[in-house]
Amino acid sequence: VEEAMQALKDVVALRDLLVAERRAEGATPARDARLACVNAVLSLTWSGAVPIMGFRRERLEKARAALQDSEAMA
User: What are 47-53's contacts with CB under 8 Å, separation 24+?
Assistant: First the structure.
């Protein structure tokens, strides 16, 4: 479980770096392809880190509420 969570953190960091580069330097076909690949890996990593059974719905609801609050402040 710890390895999966570390992998998730690493992929998120890479994704954030690619997004920052894209915003600063602009889109290129190679950068967009790499970002799409990293997003796909992120999806797979997340699905491996979160068990199908036992996921706590209240955490999703709290996350959704926090995102809505942050949008309202923007």
Answer: 48/4, 49/1, 49/4, 49/5, 49/7, 49/8
